[in-house]
Design a protein that fits this description.
16 helices; 15% strand
């Protein structure tokens, strides 16, 4: 008996039983492709239970007996654009109706499901605006997909930096006055791009920023990948659609009950035609979108419509529970929670679902905190030099939240005792462990605030020019021929065409010395960088 036969024998009986009793609810033969209560997943289940012969893609032909691993991935629901199931890129029936319900749910004029994640939506949105020309104003803490979109379009770009939250080593909100000043300085800007909320949950004043952009004839694109849940409960900040942004991209999977890679693009613009947005979306995502993904998005929208009020209330109550537990922490500090809840904020507003746990002053890195929690059976979203990030979501349970809180309290007690400084938080204190500096203590104890590199040439030009490998220790003053970033969060420290200054090298060293892995375009380690051969 081979591996797959063993797998099938041990799983197939319960699979078939559960399928027949749980999913074939309408009682039809599978040849009837009626709407079935408007839920695509039910329609797919009924069709899979029927007798239609699939002489079309995909190649597994819904043959779950020979491919048991696909059975457990519900591949019998995996079809192509056959009669009765609509076409995402030219929707007229069930998928059109589903996206219309999504638009109504978020308050958009039009919404488009994305099967290529928020990345696909960013690429399409940027291209839809810039195809008519004009310049771009973009926050320098945008996700790498924004830079890739700008590289493809080739329009002139002006970057700006949001403020910096020193005690956590993260970017703060984008100031409306920063946007106003830059639009007055660069009157040819036709697109403004920013991220709200950030990976760490920091939100900007989108309503004020949108008004300023529109007064200057510019469209506003908000990367709201981490904020699909915003605005559905008073405990969460308002979202970018309600704030008046022209284009908003959200990842449904990040916080809502949906599959990884599912996202949505919302349009609310008087400046950018919807037809062009829809056209670009079809260009930047597959012409064979997964029905597992579209069914997941349809189901997610339906769930929020029918059960959202109850689900969001439950989520907020769990965050309040965590907040009470976080007040007991003595050394660790959580942004916007526990002892930090009433501290001067230094940002516009924060999404409470993101738990940014600072290890500053503990003698430990964010990576070490993440590893200690992993040992306790808790896997976090990410860690950086000085903090670790726990993401909560609609599917969290009270057990999840209590286990996280208990593990943090245990670590907090152990580290406080080891430091001999119980009950005292020391943000910004110099760590006693030389591993945190790598230089015998002379390196900054806190992450240096991000600085705006000097631009030598546009990204596209830098990528096309001849380049060579240069040691990081000898790279100051050289022009980067690649992107350099930590992932997550995927924000480039340097992009092609920017000059490696002392500030960027210091930031890279700081992150590396605290265990943060840096990624580069050409796959070399960050000690060997690709720079332009000639300046």
């Amino acid at each position: 008996m081979n591996l797959y036969e063993n797998y099938e024998n041990s799983h197939n009986t319960s699979y078939n039983t559960n399928y027949n009793t749980s999913y074939n609810t309408s009682g039809n033969t599978g040849n009837d492709t009626g709407n079935n209560n408007g839920l695509l997943w039910r329609k797919l289940a009924d069709y899979a239970a029927g007798s239609a012969v699939p002489m079309h893609m995909p190649g597994h032909k819904r043959n779950m007996e020979d491919f048991p691993w696909l059975a457990h991935l519900r591949a019998d629901w995996d079809i192509t654009e056959i009669d009765g199931f609509d076409n995402l890129n030219d929707a007229e029936e069930i998928l059109l109706e589903s996206q219309q319900r999504a638009a109504a749910l978020w308050g958009a004029k039009h919404s488009r499901y994305l099967v290529n994640g928020s990345t696909g939506g960013i690429l399409a949105a940027v291209r839809a605006v810039l195809i008519g020309g004009g310049e771009v104003l973009a926050a320098r803490n945008c996700h790498k997909s924004v830079y890739h979109a700008l590289e493809l379009c080739g329009n002139p770009v002006h970057f700006f930096l949001p403020e910096w939250i020193t005690d956590f080593g993260i970017f703060s909100s984008v100031s409306p006055e920063t946007i106003r000043a830059n639009l007055e300085r660069y009157p040819a800007v036709r697109l403004v791009i920013l991220t709200s909320p950030t990976y760490e949950g920091i939100c900007s004043d989108i309503a004020s920023i949108a008004d300023i952009c529109h007064a200057h004839g510019a469209a506003l694109l908000v990367d709201e990948a981490h904020g699909a849940h915003l605005g559905f409960h008073e405990g969460f900040p308002s979202g970018a659609v309600a704030g008046g942004a022209d284009l908003v991209v959200q990842s449904l999977h990040k916080t809502l009950p949906c599959l990884t890679q599912t996202a949505i693009l919302h349009w609310n613009s008087e400046i950018i035609p919807w037809q062009e947005v829809a056209r670009q979306t079809a260009i930047f995502q597959s012409s064979s979108p997964s029905y597992l993904f579209t069914a997941a998005m349809d189901g997610c929208v339906n769930y929020v419509e029918e059960h959202g009020a109850e689900a969001f209330e439950r989520w907020i109550n769990l965050l309040r529970l965590f907040d009470r537990e976080a007040e007991k922490l003595q050394l660790l500090l959580i942004l916007g929670h526990g002892r930090n809840r009433e501290e001067p904020r230094g940002y516009f507003v924060k999404d409470p679902s993101k738990l940014v746990i600072s290890a500053q002053g503990s003698g430990h890195t964010g990576g070490e905190l993440m590893e200690r929690l992993r040992e306790a059976g808790i896997e976090l979203e990410m860690s950086s030099a000085e903090y670790a990030l726990a993401m909560t979501g609609m599917g969290d349970t009270e057990e999840n939240i209590r286990r996280l809180a208990q593990a943090l309290l245990a670590i907090d007690r152990a580290w406080s005792e080891a430091a001999g400084d119980k009950g005292k938080n020391m943000p910004g204190a110099v760590a006693s462990d030389a591993r945190l500096t790598g230089t015998g203590g002379e390196e900054a104890a806190q992450r240096p605030a991000a600085s705006l590199p000097e631009v030598f040439c546009p990204v596209g030009e830098a990528m096309r020019r001849l380049h060579r490998i240069c040691l990081l220790s000898e790279a100051e003053g050289q022009v980067s021929a690649e992107y350099i970033w930590a992932y997550p969060p995927g924000i480039p420290i340097l992009i092609p065409g920017e000059i490696l200054g002392a500030e960027q090298i210091e930031e890279m060293r700081f992150l590396q010395n605290r265990g943060v892995k840096l990624h580069t375009t050409w796959g070399e380690n960050a000690e060997q960088l690709h720079v332009l051969r000639d300046r």
